[in-house]
């Protein structure tokens, strides 16, 4: 279970701070700090830091095994994020789909691709017990 007195931290590469800030702000993430070499976001309550390192960008990203994202416990919040991504013309790596259909771990998921080819997954499990 999530401990409310702790915040998860993730550092990822980016090729351009301005386009990175634009993408994450359109996703609804607030800029917490910005320096010449990085920008830090409140990413749905956790901390994502995008470090300027254009030489570290993956030119051919794949969903597995490397991605990060949010698992929603609220179906409406999942749908709201999906609609916001569409409205803001954020690039989809994978449209909304069902994984493990008909099984207890069935969930909806979609993937976005940020300007530096980092892949973000957003998902909602119909059975909350399958989150962990």
From TrEMBL:
<feature type="domain" description="VOC">
    <location>
        <begin position="6"/>
        <end position="125"/>
    </location>
</feature>
<protein>
    <submittedName>
        <fullName>VOC family protein</fullName>
    </submittedName>
</protein>
<dbReference type="InterPro" id="IPR029068">
    <property type="entry name" value="Glyas_Bleomycin-R_OHBP_Dase"/>
</dbReference>
<dbReference type="Pfam" id="PF00903">
    <property type="entry name" value="Glyoxalase"/>
</dbReference>
<dbReference type="InterPro" id="IPR004360">
    <property type="entry name" value="Glyas_Fos-R_dOase_dom"/>
</dbReference>
<dbReference type="InterPro" id="IPR037523">
    <property type="entry name" value="VOC_core"/>
</dbReference>
């Amino acid at each position: 279970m999530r401990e409310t007195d702790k915040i998860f931290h993730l550092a990822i590469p980016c090729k351009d701070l301005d386009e990175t800030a634009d993408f994450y702000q359109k996703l609804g993430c607030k800029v917490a700090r910005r320096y010449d070499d990085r920008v830090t976001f409140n990413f749905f309550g956790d901390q994502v830091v995008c470090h300027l390192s254009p030489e570290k960008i993956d030119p051919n990203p794949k969903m597995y095994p490397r991605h990060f994202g949010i698992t929603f416990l609220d179906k409406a919040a999942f749908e709201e994020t999906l609609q916001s991504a569409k409205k803001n013309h954020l690039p989809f790596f994978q449209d909304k789909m069902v994984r493990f259909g008909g099984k207890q771990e069935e969930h909806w998921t979609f993937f976005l691709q940020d300007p530096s080819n980092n892949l973000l997954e957003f998902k909602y499990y119909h059975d909350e017990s399958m989150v962990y």
